[in-house]
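Work package 3, deliverable 3.1, input record:
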Amino acid sequence: NAGVMQNPRHLVRRRGQEARLRCSPMKGHSHVYWYRQLPEEGLKFMVYLQKENIIDESGMPKERFSAEFPKEGPSILRIQQVVRGDSAAYFCASSRKDRRGNTIYFGEGSWLTVV
Amino acid sequence: QQPVQSPQAVILREGEDAVINCSSSKALYSVHWYRQKHGEAPVFLMILLKGGEQKGHEKISASFNEIKQQSSLYLTASQLSYSGTYFCGTESQGAQKLVFGQGTRLTINP
C-alpha cells in the first residue's frame, strides 16, 4: 500500500526558472494539502485541494505560485520565476475525504534549492 | 491562526517524561500530533477529536480540553527514538485546513 509519493525529491533551479513539484496521494485519498517548511522552521500551510477544486488557498503567495489537482494524474505545485527565498522543503499530504478529523499522511517532501 | 506550542525545546535523559502543550485561540474540532526527524517527513502520532474520540500511538498519550482549546502530548519513559520535533496541527470549527504550531524540539540523551 503505497504512501504519498512526491517527486522530485530534490530540485535545483536557477533564479527565474520554473519549479514543478508533483504529488500522488495515497490510494483512496481524494484530498491533498501542500505545506512549505523553511530550514529549522515549522510547517506553513499553503493550499488544500480536492480533485478539480481548490478548497482553501489562503496560504499561497499571491504571485508566482499555483496549485492544481486534476481529475487524472498527480497534484502539481508550480512556482514560476523562482527566487532564493523559495528555497525550502515542500511537503504534500493527503487524506481520505472531506470529513473532519481524518488523519492526513505526509509524503517524503521535495527539497527545492534556488541558486 | 497558528496554534502556540510550549515549550519550544526540551532536553531529557532516557527514561524521563515530557509534556508538550498546544493551545489555540479558536474553537477546535480536532488536534493532530506529528513527530518529525531532521530531513524527514512528519510522521502521524495521534489525533484527538471534539467529543472525546482518540486514535493514536501505543506509548504516547494525549489529552484535549475542548473548553480551553488546549491539547497536551505526554511522552512517558522516553526512549532515544523519541528525539525529534513535535508539531501539533489544529483543525478549527470554521476551516477545513490543518494549521501547525511552530514545533517543540525534543532531545533525548542516553
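The mean pLDDT of chain A is 93.
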